[in-house]
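May I ask for a sample protein chain and its fold as tokens?
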Amino acid sequence: MTTSQTYPANVPPNPAKRHAAMNSAKKMNKKDLAALAAASGETGSPPPPKDSAYRCKLDSMQDIRREMAKVYRECRAEKIDPGNAVKLVGVLQSVAKTIESCDLEKRIAALEKKR
């Protein structure tokens, strides 16, 4: 008895044709893959290209708050995937804790200096 395996509509059931389809998919560049994902209804946004790194100022709690709000707005507008938003906010929270620790350290040093 043979079991039939189901494949997505765009993958041929014939093993030889399926292999050819898989090889052609491997040859696609990032732009083609993004267009294919958009056509298939995927909503996740692709990560930015490596050569165009996103930069923002994260020197104060106000900067962190502003960046968290930006991530929230982009997630609500479906510009970024909610999973990526959670990861970004987690990193921002770590940066915020570091800023708090540094600020506390400076305050303690100033108090000890006054003694």
